[in-house]
Amino acid sequence: MIMKKSPAEIEAMKEAGRISAKVLREVGARVQPGISTLELDQFAEALIRLEGGIPAFKGYGGFPGSICASINEQIVHGIPSAGVILKEGDIISIDTGAIVDGWVGDNAWTFPVGKISPEKQRLLEVTEKCMWAGLEAARPGNRLGDIGAAVQEIAEAAGYGVVREYVGHGIGRNMHEDPNVPNYGRKHTGIRLEPGMVLAIEPMINIGTHKTKQMPDGWLVVTRDGKPSAHFEKTVAITEDGPLILTTEPDHRRPV
Ligand code: MG
Fold first, then answer.
1. Those residues with Cβ within 8 angstroms of residue 32's Cβ, 6 or more apart along the chain or in another chain
2. CA 247 to ligand 1 centroid distance, Å
3. Which residues, 6+ apart, have CB-to-CB distance to 60 below 8 Å?
4. Beta bridge partners of 175
5. What span, in angstroms and rounded, lies between the C-alpha atoms of 225 and 110?
6. How far apart are CA 134 and CA 125, in angstroms?
7. Could you report the per-residue pLDDT of 109-138, keeping only the tens digit for each?
8. Which of these, 77, 98, 94, lies nearest to 86 by C-alpha position?
């Protein structure tokens, strides 16, 4: 069942979104060769709490971290670890989420570690573009399939694979609510998008095959062919006026 939010509830979700976005930006600024993903995680948790939030991921289904940190061929849900040290040329997807007053914010970005290859740079640019296209489609009058179609069209035109097994989601009092928001689909199909729906739109795009593999820790997901993958995500409210991004800081707000 889709839990639509009132304008006041959407307003209330902005604080969880602001913290999620601030933490993602600040963690991203600390991405550099030599730092471990556990250090990034500890920084993120401290900042979430300092800002008045609760880490949304910590303990979720038993997940041990406050961020997900997924490097290169890792798609999503990497567990932060002291043994995982970033090195020049890596890309790292970081997913952060905060809870404030029971409302959840969820967002992700893939950052370059130092200088990266042109192939990886292009992957980041295309995947970010996919995310913005998905967000742009999150408006009344469209259907759910319009979001997936917008993402898929850009990714596949670039020759990339669109992950199927992991998708975006509704979000609110719970991190994962209905509906599922696939990054593939057909235009003009699926449920109608209505004001009050709040979605986490999160393309996961692979340079090679779209196929994935679940690792034995039960969390980490990697590409089947070992080629790099990128992940960008924002939480967006569908309003009468169009998409309203909630995981943003007022000073860093940009139009969809
Ligand atoms: Mg999400």
1. 86, 113, 114
2. 12
3. 175
4. none
5. 19
6. 14
7. 999 999 999 999 999 999 999 999 999 999
8. 94
